[in-house]
Protein 1
Amino acid sequence: MSIPMISEADRLRREVLAYVIKAVKEGKHEDIDRIPLKMRPKGTPSSRCCIYKDRAALRYRCMSALGFRVEDETDELKTLASYADDTKTTPPACDPFLTIFPDACSACMESQIMVTNMCRGCLARPCTNICPRKAIQVRNGRARISHELCINCGKCAEVCRYHAIIQVPLACADACPVGAIGKTDDGRVTVDDEKCIRCGRCIKACPFAAIMQSNQVAHVVRDITEGKKVIALVAPAVNGFFPVEPGKLYAALKQIGFSEVHEVALGGDDTAIAEAAEWAERKAEGAPFMTTSCCPAWMECVERHIPEIKPYVSHTPSPMIFSDRRAKAMYPDAVTVFIGPCMAKRTEAHKKGSPDYVITAEEVGAWLMAENVQLDELEAVQPELGGTHYGAEFAISGGVANAVAHYLPEGAPKPTVFKINGLNKKNIALLKVFAKTKKAPDDIIEIMVCPGGCVAGPCAIATPEDATKAIQSRRPEDFEA
């Protein structure tokens, strides 16, 4: 089994996951302590200053793969095998699940605009004219930026005809839509857990892979090896990540030990039906607008940054919660595992108390690699519970609103839709205005924190464009049993 590699950091993370999963599945916990040595043997080039720092970073990656946070370490001599043993009695870190290996951080400079030596001090000087703070002046034949006045808007870089002005990013901080990324006194990255909305963008953005997540896959593997009934709840986005029809992926999940496979697309239908009824009721009562509620990072943003918009947020549970309820109603003693591209689902599951675990598409891909599962060679199977294409398209921008419109109660007016396709500082400010004025341009505001929808989640293993095409290519009849 192979999955797309986007960067060396992706390859490294997935390789660590595969080694850890294999060792836990086979009960060879002592092998986990050898993973750093196996991946960085003597004589091989190092990606950091020395091979020993590489091995230290790999040790902490193994620790996080087992479900622990670097910040929780109290004994530096504790073996990884001991951490693996602890998964039998210690639940994985759920909230916060972000964890940082400080020594991996490169202490990048703050985001700033810089003038390079390509500047010609041209006569047109569009950079000085467009700057809203008059932070640019031309002296001695070259543009100079006063960083005390500069607000990093980037307008000067956009208009420079020589491309002589560049915007140098602080990757992790620039990716964060809520300003939760900061720096320690020595310049290393830190995350403010009170501001963080658990979207995972910083993990995806950090070029040094210093920000990690504590995984839950080792606990799921353990439950399967202990013979428990473990049900996979597969998010619609996941079917867009693997280059085979969904039935072959479901067959693979059963091959690695899942007892049943349920499509969360059915939970999407449940959410759309309930949300359509809720909208019709709110509209009849004169509500000015309603926002969707299925994106957990958005719900964290509401709690932490826009509490004033709460009255306008849908109360309908997410597809994950509906799917878990169905599974638990059928099998009260089963272990339920949501599989998707989203990290924030872990926080949602922790707060709601269901499902039991949340693992990512990336972890599943690593698991299939660990067990050398060849998807093309499997015979497709149907999920025990499926959904419709309306529920499946919850994974893409516009899909939620489309499903809600389809399931409107008879006689209810069709709502107009305002899409926020990727949360950022600008549209957070706009949402605050909607809440303050009690007015919005449309009836329903569909909010996707990740641009493109769930298919662009931080643990996606395909491009959003390819995943969207794969999901939209499924015909309505493909969902029939």
Protein 2
Amino acid sequence: MKELLKHASTLIGSGEDHIRENIHNHSSNVAFYKDSVQKKDNAIVAMACDFKSKFILVLSSREDGIIADFSGEQIGDCGVIARKCPLNEHNAQLLRTLFPWTAPVSLRNRKTTIGCGDRLGLASVGHIAAVKHFDATPVLAQQSMRELDLTGRTYRQVVDDATFMVFQAGYKDGFGADGDHLKNIPDIDVALSAGMPMITLDLSEVMLAKAGDWQNSQVETAFQALSADVQRRIEQNYFDKTFKVGSLEISIDAATARRCAVMYLKALDFALEVYNHVKARRGDEFDLEISIDETTSPTLPSHHLFIVKELRLRGVEFTSLAPRFIGEFQKAVDYIGDPAEFARQFEVHAAIARTHGDYKVSIHSGSDKFMVYPTIGQMTGMRLHLKTAGTSWLEAVRVIAENDPELYRLMHKCALANFNDMLRLYHITADIGKIDNVDAMPDNDLPKLMEMNEARQLLHITYGPILRDKAIRPLFFAAMHKFEKQYSEKLKSHFEKHLSLLGVPGR
């Protein structure tokens, strides 16, 4: 460290670009992330690491000013004072204050957005490396309450981790943060308090999805239980009406209108309550996504149109909406279904979004759906939001399989032991009996499992038990620190494939 401080003393008065290009000192055990180097007032602030961990290193010729604001250990003096600062909540908040581009923002005016779920707090650098070459904006901090429970993280930690990674990458083009699949206001408040500008409102628990399978007589009985004013409005606005959506037409007969009213009106009233609540907290600086994808049946175009018209009637401003599409969007694998039928139905959903407010169509469980990406990109005109999460975790698993076969075997066995429990939370159809015994496999064959659908789904849904395992966890994070560069390179390549197949224009 003494040699590093001597070297820094020759740079402290230089310009930022000169410091960035010359700050690395080969005689030191500390390595700087060059893109992170920032000159602020009388100090150099940068992300750095040693063989154990990452930290913020603040260098200054004075003891007062910025260096005094960071929490951490003061470690030397050679005409330069240095402070080694842990990646904690205080220092994350200070970074957001000093460098506002490290804070998430509303992306309501960004045309193409990519949700990059990062369950480890390590993936954002790789996501940024890919996205910065495309005309798209990343949502780097994206987690559901289920993911928080399984990983033991908090929304504050998720946002802070994204802040540190954005600072490390020196990324100044803006990013989002999404409290994903939230179902109640207390959970929404937790996400908002952590600084998340995007809320994905999951209406599955307040809409009456089972009414989609009711007989018409049951629907009629439930419809008659609504107030006379509501019945009259639904009849006047929807019964036997045909609506133009671009060059297409959608007809809603009386039976469909009654069914939609019974299924969705209560949920849409709740959406208004949530919208008013979030607007009171954040003004216009938020993104509200409406999620109706957590159902067993695809969202019919007539239902999609009904929902959108009712949201507009209530004055709910939303940035994106996630229908449940035909076919299966299972975790970790490509689209399951007929691509031609998907295209036929998706065209109508895209037309509804384009002609009724020009909101983004949101694709949930959207990673690795390479078969239908060209259709999605073309039919939305790139006005879309794509949600990914587990695919970034699987790239971490791939890194472990390639570099630490014994650790991979431990993770794989943990996944097998917890697979049935995780099936209660995730819907997949993998036959894991097709996966060979990893103890009998040569080390060089282990990475090939990440090309096998059954193994991908096994490892995808068992991330929680793996990350909570007291024997595996320290080994895993130590390996990820060691192979950080390789992980970022794999994520860059993987997400470039996603963006290219979607047809996102390059920058």
Protein 3
Amino acid sequence: MAEILSVKQLTFKKEEAFLSPFAVKSNETKGRLKEETACPMRTEFQRDRDRIIYSRAFIRLKNKTQVFFSPEGDHYMTRLTHTLDVSQIARSISRALALNEDLTEAIALGHDLGHTPFGHAGERVLNKLSPNGFKHNEQSLRVVDVLEKGGLGLNLTYEVRDGILNHKTGTCPSTLEGQVVSISDRIAYLNHDVDDAVRAGVISVEDLPKSVLNVLGKTSRERINVMISSAYENSLNKDKITLSSDVDGAMKELRAFMFDNVYMMPTAKREEERAGLMISATYDYFIKNPDKLPKVYQDLLKNYPLETVICDYLSSMTDRYAVNVFNQIFIPQSF
């Protein structure tokens, strides 16, 4: 009688048969920080994906700013919709290149778990306040290693942790799947930030540099397709994920345009200043009153400096919760 393979064994066989030599096979993971009993059905990367999706940090992303603070419309990007956008783009590229889609998806879903309320404005404020600095990619790793599950962490695999830590521009993940997420992050935020800025009336499509439109296209759909196609065409059967020089140059030009005309516009800077003052005041309050921190964060003080734990607490907040905490501390309450 023929041996009946388990679901996981079938997955291993499919990966051996169909994945690129440059892909990370699920049975070749470098493992976890703490050994665990294997799941009989899911691979380790599938387990990581599931742990991230069901984490509290992932759920909170729905109420964290991407670019525009507390927008009135229902169709502006949040940190959660950005994360799903990155995941979709990264999976498309990974599938085309025959890489490990489960690993790619896990990295994409976890890459921004440590992001602050109020977008990069919150990150910049905490980076100035904390003597150890603050970077959202490092905080994302701290979330999955330490903060989730009441201080136990999610105990993810090496490959997922590496991809989360190194997704930012200027870093380089050790796997191609991680590199795919890094490029997909740029593809996602450039295009949906343009859409949000146009929707908000900050810019029009006609304002975008003609040189960018000529290379990437006039619509978000065209630009994303061009970027994904470039990643595929320039990375197929290679040990590095790259874009063509013209597409990479156009993306850099578009990013510079967005900084000059959207991210640093007076309205955004004014709201960023308000958010910064609020976060600074809350940070200073907990420096002086550590006993007012929630118990789970007070427990962390046994092993970590106060400044680090306050950053843990503040960065975990949604925009709405950060405002509520500020109001409870500083705004007189009605009787």
Protein 4
Amino acid sequence: MSTLPFKENKEIQLGVEIEIQLIDPTTGDLKPTGAEILQSIKNTHGTPRIKSELFQSMLEIDTPISKNAMDAAHSLRDSLSLVRATAAKYDTQIIMAGTHPFAHYTEGELTPHTRYYQLVDRNQWITRRLQIFGLHVHLGMRNGDHAMAMNNALCHYLPIILALSASSPYWQSQDTGLASSRITFFESMPTGGPPYLLNTWSEFEALIQRLMFSKSITSLKDLWWDIRPNIEYGTIEIRIADCPPTITEVEALVALIHSLAVFIDAELQSGQLFSPPPEWILRENKWRASRYGIQCELIQDISGRTSSFLASWQTLRETLKSTSARLGYDPLFDFLSQLIHRGPSYLRQRRQGPELQNVIQHLIWENKNDRPQWD
């Protein structure tokens, strides 16, 4: 009998979560108005898909179960418009990016919640540093073994997702030299970073039993992996992506992730097996994507052969050509190709620097106009 009952989904549908930043329009710093904004929204609109997060200067927006990236983006745009209008009443603006360019994590005000207090009590400074902002994408799975097979296959593509989403070059007023500094903070968590590589659901259940028994975790929420199963929703949750500055970018990344899942699922059903990449390749390619973004060279096989990010993208796009066309995603894939050519957020932010107030104004503009500021 299964020790971790997995909610089963008949289709690979989507759920998307974004973590947004609340900004003081005068100073450009983070502003802890999350509780007031959330309460005002609840008083007026009931309980929409907007939640508090670890710090009071951030909110999470999620979607209902969505059939495709366009549906998910439509929901996110509606919720973000509601948050923006309400935030204006509290002299607060909105940006989206993996990190805030200059806010000090030591000044972050925790949201009063038992789980958050417990996280800080256990992990101390490590939790305090998690003033970072991600994009999470859920993919519905048929059962636990399907989830593990999909998990292992998707591990090969996580560096591409990270590089395209990378939007956290700055941290505490410094250019980190990284395309995504955000993702490195999870590496210090005791159960953060790349997932443990397992082959079956029974192996995952046995691992969770050991982690729980040893008090290494208290729930599956304590797995801060880049990709993980979620038994409550019956999904695989991809967590590696920085939160991009625009919903247009979110929509395109979700389209890529959904296309990958649909393609891999068809291969699995035809009998194709996907082993996860060797751990050294998984970790090295993640590092290269976090350091160099779309300018990275990715390791392709155990011999150490590499290819450019652009070549990897072109190969992947050709592989997913029929899947993206069938799902109606070709315009979104065209946008991703344009993003690679003209620059993801980490490059756009650096073009505005080194004056970080310019970076803040740039991020406000992009979020409000829902498009990259390439010109």
